[in-house]
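user:
I keep going back and forth on a fold encoding question. Separate attempts, laid side by side, tell us more than any discussion would. Would you put together a sequence-and-structure record for a protein of your own picking? Write it directly below this note and I will take it from there.

assistant:
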Amino acid sequence: MRYKAGWLVQNHILALTHFEPVVTMEDFRDIAADAHMALQEATQPLHLLIDNRIIAERTVATLDSMLNALPILQHAHLRWIVVVLPEAVKETAAARQVERHGSIQLKFTDSLASAFQHLAREDDRIDGAAGMESSWSDWISYKDNPVATGEERGARGRV
């Protein structure tokens, strides 16, 4: 498995995490199909959490480029896209402005913990960052992928 995409919190938080540092065109196509299927179910305001910590790419996509590449993201219920930046550029997160397109906002963070904190602040339906961390560790087990769980790991440094 090269990635995992699906509901972290059903009909509320859609998540994507990568297990390989390079995203192939096949991965991108499959991720788009998974997002399309999940978003078909959406009936209330939702958020998208993208964990790019292990991605090797140093280029950071803008909101407009995301919406152009994946038109399904222009969903009536989508509110926040929160992207955890790759390790190589995570120090730039604080300097990046929130981007907006209609009711959709894009926020870059430097860690999963920061992403969880942001979503918990922005959506009172979320039971705090600790609840998000618990959901994440249930969604991605250490056995499946220690990097994706946020566990400490040697040279890459983690949350």
About this structure: Confidence is low (pLDDT under 50) at residues 152-159. The first helix runs from residue 25 to 40. Residues 137 and 149 are 6 Å apart (CA to CA).
